[in-house]
Design goal:
The complex is a heterodimer. Chain A has 8 helices and no strands. Chain A has helices spanning 4-15, 25-35, 43-68, 70-73, 77-103, 124-146, 152-175, 195-202. The radius of gyration of chain B is 18 Å and the shape is globular. The chains are: A mainly alpha, B mainly alpha.
Amino acid sequence: MLNNMWTRRSFLGKSALGAGAVISGEAAIQLLSTTRVWAAAAQGDLDILNFALTLEFLEADFYMQANAAADKLFTDQRSKDLFKLIGSDEAAHVSAISDTITKLGGKPVAKPTVKYPDGSFTDYKSFLKLSKTFEETGVGAYLGQAGAITDPAILQAAAGIFGVECRHAALVGKIAGLPAEGGVYMGATETAKTKDEVLAAVKPFLS
Amino acid sequence: MTKDANELFDGQPVLEFESDADRRGFLKYAALFGVGATLVACGNNKSGGGSPAASSSPSTAPSASPTDDTSAFGQGDLGIANFALTLEYLEADFYAKGVAGGSGLLGDLLPLIQPIANHEAAHVQALTQLITAAGGKPAAKPTTKYPDGTFTDKMKFLMTASVFEETGVKAYHGQVTRIQDKKVLAAAASIAGVESRHAAILADILNQKQVPSPVEAHAPSSEIVAAVKPFLGS
């Protein structure tokens, strides 16, 4: 379903621009997935990456389906553009994490079979609600795992993805017209979620 | 769901203290980070609990890379925390001035910007408490200066805000792998995520790219210091 060739090309293609004093996120993850000489990876890190990959698969699939229905689902250009952007980010996360697991000598989990409530891609409000749920779950999931990651390069990349999930969560909250505090922002600090909490949140969407 | 220390960081306590006095000192800090008091574990000895996070107070190990050096702000994690505190002081000061006149400067954008001002002030307080509780000396509030028109021209204010937020994001991400102590990492990460939200919203307001890359960029401290230097000093 997911066009991996396209997402990988766009992701690594952009990374060539990452030269310069500021290390771009793309460069960081390119380093992570292509040029690093891997020592034996800690099993814990591989487990965390596969946990993250499952979430990213779900998010990427969700936005891919939404964007396929864009003409009916989104009524203005602004929302079309935003969800296209978010969708491409999630697809990039899937590619990068999969590549990283492979480079580490691990086996990426298969893409899960997913299901969504009726109307998820025809009713804009239902879509926004799900989108916000997925993004906030992603935020809490990455933060919840940060302390358990042992490899610095993986930590750097996971933190970088976490920050982007935070951006998405805020942008979805804003375009949904939610209150600034408690909708766009969720307080002065982000809140971690345990693996169990994350799995409970996404379980209804995995079949 | 009732959480306990074993559930934060998925089994690794983020906040663990040598003594109960230290634990009490951190409770205010813990509350600021949205962490329930029950999450705060108290280790009676350094190797207690068998947890990898059962570390002592923030590390004072020398920095690993000279390009990322934060030793001007203090050694190890305390230096990193003071580096972050200096940036947060600047941001807090900037937003406090921006919202000082109510909606005078920002008009109908005030509801989106006022929370940012509140967050930055909370970050200053949280980092100050973190540093103090770890036995360090919090950096003093820097003197700040801004170009003419920063607080009278809405666009100028918003563009400066955007620069501060993107700089803040890169600053935190530049320190992620240098942080030794898990509780400092937890604090830094939970703040960094909020800076990402701010950055995205400001970019959205300004019709700029809300997500510059699928993974946040990071920059060494020397670059961050150079970026904010024009705003520091009288």
